[in-house]
Structures are given as C-alpha cells and as structure tokens.
Amino acid sequence: MGLISLTCKEWVGRKENADWLTNLQNLVWDGHAALKGGTAINAERPGRFHVQNLHAVNYHGAPHLALSTVELDSEGLNIGGRNIIMDSSYAIVEEFDKPDDFSEMDPHEFETVDNGTAILQTGRIRHSSASPLSENGIVGESAFQLVDLSSRRTKFEWRSLSHVPESETCLTIPQLDYHVEKDFQGNYIINGYHACEMTKINGTDGSIIWRLGGSKSDFKMFDDYKLMHMHHVRIRKLADVKIPEELCGKVSDETHLALSIFDNAFFSLGKRAPTAGSSSAIVVLLDLNAMTGQVIERYTQPEGMYGALFGSVQFLANGDRFIGWGGQRGFSQYTQDNELVFHAEISNEAMPTWSYRTFKGPWSARPTTQPDLYTYSWNCHWNTTMYASWNGATEVESWRFYGSPSEYGPFEETAFVAKNGFETRVMAPFFADHAYVEALDADGSVRGRSMTVKTKVPEPDWGTLCSELRCYQKFDWTEGDGSDFCSEYSTGVTEGMPGQSVLR
Fold first, then answer.
1. Are strands 292-300 and 220-221 parallel, antiparallel or unpaired?
2. Cys bridge to 6: 171, 351, 358, 473, which one at CB 3.0-4.6 A?
C-alpha cells in the first residue's frame, strides 16, 4: 500500500503543524517533533520555521528521506534554512546550508540526481528593483545549483535574471521561483511559476533551448490548452504514459518528450482569470520536430476545486497517478484510465491546511530511539492503562506489556496485543506502579524496549478532572504525584469492584 509523506501547514498564521509519514488510517512518523529536537530546527524560536517537500530520495544507491526547512523573521522574510537528508533511522546524514552568495534558501526544490551522488537545490538572491511590480524595491532572483555530494563542489549554477528579465514575470510579485528537473542528456527543465512558463536550459552554459507556456512559448498547444500557473514538472518515460492510439509507433525519445505537470490553472494573487475549469494533473506530450504539444492525460480535482498554490504529480509503480492538490488541502489517486481510487482531505474548511507536495511509496525504518510508554491509573485501587508507541517504526506488529508493583520488580506480562494504530492502548488487570513494553515484529522478534516508567496517578483533589483512562487537563506531573501513596497496594486482583485492585 505504501506510506504517504506530507508537510501540513495552517493558512491561519502560516504555522507549521507537522511533517508526516502516514498511511490512510494511521500516523507513522511525526517529523516535526523529531526535527525540533535536533539541529534542523531551532527549538528556542518556535513558530518561525516551516518544513516542506518531505519525500523519498536515492542517496548513494539507498532509499533515504529528504526535506527542506526554512527560518522566517518577524516579517515573514526567509532568513535561513537547511536542506536535509535522513537515513532509515531518521538520523540526519547530510545538511546543506544556504550558499554564501545566496540571500536565502529556497525550499521549492531539493532532489538527489545522478544515482544519488549529487543534489539539486534552489535559492534566491535579493536585488534592488525599480520595477513597478516591486512594492518594496526588491526583486527575488531564483537560482539553482548542482552540487556533488562527496566534494561539496558546485558543478553547475544557473541564475534566472541572467536569462529571464524581471519584466517577464506574469504575476504581481517580482519574484522568479523555479522548480527544477535534470534530463537524461544533462540539461534541465525548469518550471518558472512566476514567469508562467517551463524552460529547457543548456546544462553547460545555461542558455535557453526552448520555452513552453506563457507569452513566449515555442510550442503550439493542441486545443489551445493554456499553460500558465504550474508546479512540479517531471520528465516521464514514454513507456509510462498513455500514448494516443493515432501516435502509437510514431513516437521516440529522439522526437518526443513527455512531461507530467501539476496545472494549478489559477493563482489567487495574480488577478488573472483561471485557465481551466479546475486544477488538474496533466501529462503533456511534446513533438520536438513539429514544436507542438498536447495533453494526453488529465486528472481533475475531484470536487472541481482550484489548488491555487503548490501541488505535485507522482507516477506509482503500479501505473496509478498520485496527486497532491497543494493549497486545496487534499490528495488523490487515479488509475491511468482516469478512475478515482481514493480522495482524502488533510483538514476541513474550518481549519484550512495545505501540503506543498504529497507523495506515496514504500518506506521501511527502524528509529534509534526507544519505544515510548505512558502509564496511568485513576487511583491506587484502579487498573493501570498503558499507551505504547514508537514514532517512525515501520516493522512493529505487536506489543508485549509488563507491569510490577515496584521499580525493581518482579515484572509480569500484563498484555500481548497486536499493534493498533500509532498508539496502542491496553489496560493491565491490576495496578502496576512501574511498567515497560517490548515492540515485536512479524516474526515475534523483539525490535525495541521502552524505558521502565512510573505510573502517573492523579492527586486526590484533582477529582472530576480525571477519569479511568486519562486526565482532561494538563497537569504538572512530578515525582510527588499520587502514585507515591500506592506502594502499599498489591498487584493481585481480589474481591472488589470489577477489574480493580484492593488492599490485602
């Protein structure tokens, strides 16, 4: 089935919520908490960072995760950030800071290329500008670099204003953002969102080879399909796209090029009419001799909505198309025959949330952290409720819980259950003052063990603020909580209320 990677952000306050790996039912990895505790995010300045573009990459021939973090100042300007690669234990193996001659890190693109031996990363350079589009006299020039992973040497760099004048921006924002894809010949296909066009550039001297979309397109689109507001262009093998019957046997890598594109079709800040009836994922087939293009696949947003910003298109191994709707807070999977497999939403209209890109695919991980265990009892007479989880672990199939009346044991098994979601809850048949849990894989082998934890027991005067399963208010639990009064109770179940422990 695969896991889904997304970075969720609220529109209200532009606050980053989480970086997630999930399946359609349960959270698998919450990366926001993990990154905030490491070097990737400054924990002393919460709310001033966001993370985007969480996705799987090939790093030196092995699957890894990649993402970008951005630091914002009080006015929302980008003042820092990192591009990060993590291994299957979620340990950071590579970090790339903003290049010295860039004004800021641009999280729009971060990808490994050349069989995982180099990276593509984007940045932005601020310049003074007299353009009437610039309200503050500043233009943001987009740039990208090809960097060798071993030597950290920049092998190629391209800057937009050396080739695309500022006057060619099609939006009301004087900023030239680009998404980048390296082709099979060492050239680059770049999507200039603010230029409303895709451009092929020479991988040696950076010169423009051709343009697609916008006002200076070198291609004539069939049916006058307008390509203006686009994201996430990717080169696709001809064998992986749906070639029209009339062209079967007439296309080749020498004469044609297939591109998958997320067609936003609308930009809410651009003051332009939509170019289509809704956002969609499309595949465009370019005839490089006739200089024509046609949309040969199109998958529309299921509710006919516009994802005015961001978005992604992924080809799955089974031939399906997986689409992240960007600003439209959801994602969908279609068959190549345009049948909707599923559609899911990240949030509802009451709390607008988006993910820059959303991907689906296999991922196997074993964190270096221990499983987490939280135990709670309503009072010293009550059975202990135990909550087990292991953030990011993909191999856990079951949990074995142990409890004891003492920190020093003896411990006895209280429950052995199948994993049930991100956090599995069980109730021990007695009051356990201390407990631990083991995580087991499908073969029954122990993959990890939690620390031995002391059970939390509410103080008597907390009264109705707590129940048999939890407290409804956040308390400052200390070593002097109510569990200190529980040492005189046994772990045996005798007569009394059902499922409760009583005094001997």
1. parallel
2. 358
Beta bridge partners of 144: 122, 158
The angle at the Cα of 208, spanning 67 to 284, to the nearest 5 degrees, equals 65
| Dist. CA 383–CA 500, nearest whole Å | 6
Report phi then psi at 482, rounded to 5: -60, -15
Q: Please tell me the distance from the alpha carbon of residue 276 to that of residue 266, in angstroms, as a whole number.
A: 8
Instruction: Please confirm whether the linkage preceding 302 is cis (ω < 30° from 0).
Output: no
**Quick check: bond before 410 cis, omega within 30?**
yes
pTM summary value: 0.86
Q: What's the rounded Cα separation, in Å, for the pair 465 and 461?
A: 9
Residue 398's beta-bridge partner residues? 418, 440
Write the DSSP symbol of residue 356.
S
Give the pLDDT confidence of 309-340 residue by residue, as tens digits: 789 999 999 999 999 998 777 899 999 999 99
| Tokens describing residue 205 | 């001297």
Most confident segment among 201-210, 356-365, 484-493: 201-210
Instruction: Collapse the DSSP code of 274 into the 3-class scheme (helix H, G, I; strand E, B; otherwise coil) and give the result.
Output: coil
pLDDT in tens, 184-237: 899 999 988 777 888 999 999 999 999 998 888 999 999 888 887 888 999 999
Q: What is the pLDDT of residues 273-297, one digit of tens each?
A: 777 778 899 999 999 999 999 999 9
Q: How far, CA to CA in Å, does 122 sit from each of 104, 317, 442?
A: 9, 28, 42
**Chain centroid offset of residue 130 CA:** 37
Report the alpha-carbon distance of residue 465 to residue 474 in Å, rounded: 10
- Give 260's strand partners: 234, 283
In the DSSP assignment, the letter for residue 115 is: T
